[in-house]
Amino acid sequence: MQVVIFDNAEQVAAHAADWVADLVANKPSPVLGLATGSTPISLYKKLVEKHKNDELSFKSVSSFNLDEYHNIDPSNPQSYRSFMNDNLFDHVDIDKANTHLPTCTDTQNPREQGLKYEAAIKAAGGIDLQILGIGANGHIGFNEPTSSLVSKTRIKTLTEQTIKDNSRLFNPDEYQPDTAMTMGIGTIMESRYVLLMATGENKADAVNDMITGALSAMCPASALQMHENAVVILDKAAASKLKDQGYYQWADKQNAKLNAQYGFYHNY
Ligand code: PGA
């Protein structure tokens, strides 16, 4: 796991945007795995900026989002489809037919929908770069603690903590779903690269558990310890509980030297 610590959240977003731009520049039909939540909003802002400055086109890009609430109308402003339209898709030249979220209505079978989503990811060639956030409880996507570390796309019941964490986004009289379709941890592990962004002190414990804790279903993000190409980008606050910050900073300098000498290489 590569850990990179930046001074602030702005730099985390800029670094993530450079990764996305690098993928799009180097792969003919790039497949992005996308995330919702407050953390990637600043990444999407940077991507829109790059697009407006003619530095980045999404014409060849297809995307798969991590999760979507169960049985929510896409036009509902709380749906993750609306979130993605508002924060990214409506502002760039991506073909929306190539953007996917794991949807499931009341009349659809969640198991079948999960299998279809997995098949669609495979048919697109697999995810090249999966963007992730992390929950304060260590979840990735909506894979809550105790999720199978080899799970695939399926319906999950959210924990009380996640429902509470997300309640800030709902009006008091608004219905807040408590189930969602989510890529599994196994799905995420099949991505060629994983880029996990975490900012803010409320993520510091989860970040520490993910990087230095035991591989455990109690911290779903710890599964990334088993990923060949997992990169974790943090601001200082999210990194504040890590013991070996000096090592990560030193390793990052060494990596910069290697990149300067041999080129920045991603095996997409
Ligand atoms: P956040 O959520 O970016 O809103 O903190 C991250 C997550 O729950 O995965």
Strand content: 15-25%
Secondary-structure element pattern, one letter each:
EHEHEEHEHEEHEHEHEH
- The strand line-up of the biggest sheet is 1-10-9-6-2-3-5
CATH class (first level) name: Alpha Beta
Helix percentage range: 25-40%
Number of domains: 1
Strand tally is 10
* CATH architecture group name: 3-Layer(aba) Sandwich
**Structural class of the secondary structure composition?**
alpha/beta
Largest sheet: 7 strands, parallel
Radius of gyration, taken over Cα atoms and rounded to an integer in Å = 18 Å
Broad shape: globular
Mean pLDDT: 96
What are the distinct ligands in this entry?
Answer: 2-phosphoglycolic acid
Low-pLDDT stretches are none
And the CATH topology? Rossmann fold
Number of helices: 8
